Amino acid sequence: MQADKKDIRALSKEQLRDFFVTNGDKAFRGNQIYEWLWSKSAHSFENMTNVSKETRAMLEANFVINHVKVDTMQRSEDGTVKNAVRLHDDLIVESVLIPTKTRTTACVSSQVGCSLDCNFCATARLKRMRNLTPGEIYDQVVAIDNESKLYYDRPLSNIVFMGMGEPLMNYPNVMKAIDMITSNEGLGMSPKRITVSTSGVSKMIKKMADDDVKFNLAVSLHSAIEATRNEIMPFTKSFPLTELREALEYWYAKTKNKITYEYVVWKDINDDKASIDALVKFCKYVPCKVNLIEYNAIDDGDFQQASEQATKDYITALERNNIVVKVRKSRGKDIDAACGQLANKS
Ligand code: SF4
User: Fold this and answer.
1) pTM of the entire structure?
2) How far apart are CA 342 and CA 97, in angstroms?
3) Co-location of 36 and 125 in the same domain
4) For ligand 1, what atom is nearest to the CA of residue 198?
5) 8 A C-beta contact, residue 221 and residue 233
6) Which of 35, 64, 93 is the last residue of a domain?
7) Residue 345 domain-assigned?
């Protein structure tokens, strides 16, 4: 029965080699299958054309490949592409291709729904159903890489973990997926082109630093005032700013890798001078840059983009203090693919 079979991509290369030896074959057969599964991204055993019929039948009898399928694909008028990705158990996640003149970025999901409860985010309205497997994360990247080649004639250049879910709440699977994305046995991408974005799970930021990761870290900060942050991201009551600061100092001491703060300015929430001063102060603790992100209202939300003047005030204050700041315009708004809008509407 299909349900009793194990997803073959849950096996390491060593385990695959052992499987073949145990079944009277050569260990190198494991390497060959591993290559089909990851670097060639085979969707079925049948696709493994240089593998004997008998071996394919044996694999079929023991395993499944829980590959994802792009169910629907929408293209925005600005070129952004959003995929609704169907998983083997019929759950859906979304991932987005964001093209600019010089790069193509994949924004991928790490969970079905989200464990956290940011009030401004459409994904938070979905219950967290489960974590994605390394293979399911990897497949989203492969799908976007293919679309990038098809529509923009160039491979994917960057990956951000800013889709559905909190990546650090699915840490082992996200790390395994990144291992395969960066490995020459997978996609061979540089970790410098990957950014993991967290809402600030301090314990796990320290763990990443201890694990000596080479990718970039972004933190959705949105306020450097505890009470405001607790209000807009209620779970942060368990992750106070003092702990976040300490974790980020630890990260920088170990990795020497600057942090990016993601920050949305909302009307009547954080568009005042006290909020600006608090952010400037917070930015001085650890080398960093700030991305001010344009907000996309969600259907029934109370959050509204602040005035242009408020954004300008932030920029002036940050620049005056020599903090690098960029304004990130929203992409793919017309197809609900922009930041905070991923909610499986389709
Ligand atoms: S912003 Fe990110 S962490 Fe917060 S609810 Fe949305 S998906 Fe989860």
Assistant:
1) 0.93
2) 13
3) no
4) 3
5) no
6) 64
7) no
- Whether residue 139 sits in one domain with residue 27: no
Q: Mind listing the pLDDT tens digit for each residue in 162-201? A: 999 999 999 999 999 999 999 999 999 999 999 999 999 9
* CATH code (residue 189): 3.20.20.70
Q: Is the pLDDT of residue 134 over 60?
A: yes
Structure confidence at residue 3 as a pLDDT band (50, 70, 90): low
Task: Judge whether 147 counts as a catalytic residue.
Answer: no
Tokens representing residue 82 in the block: 């959003």
pLDDT band at 1 (very low <50, low <70, confident <90, very high): very low
Residue 8 and residue 124 in one domain? no
Q: Which of 242, 184, 194, 238 is nearest to 217 (CA)?
A: 194
**Per the annotation, where are the binding residues for [4Fe-4S] cluster?**
114, 118, 121
* Distance (Å) from CA 271 to ligand 1 centroid: 21
Asked whether 323 and 286 are in contact (CB, 8 A), the reply is no
Q: Which helix (H) or strand (E) holds 202?
A: helix 202-210
Do 254 and 232 share a domain, yes or no?
Answer: yes
Q: How many domains would you assign to the chain?
A: 2
Within a domain: 318: yes
In a domain, 342, yes or no: no
Judgement on whether residues 165 and 275 belong to the same structural domain of the protein = yes
DSSP 244-272: HHHHHHHHHHHH---EEEEE--BTTTS-S
Taking alpha carbons only, the member of 252, 169, 156, 239 closest to residue 202 is: 239
CA distances to 174, 181, 261, 302, 337 from 121, in Å? 21, 27, 17, 11, 12
Does the annotation mark 283 as catalytic? no
Can you give the residue range of the structural domain that contains 16? 2-64
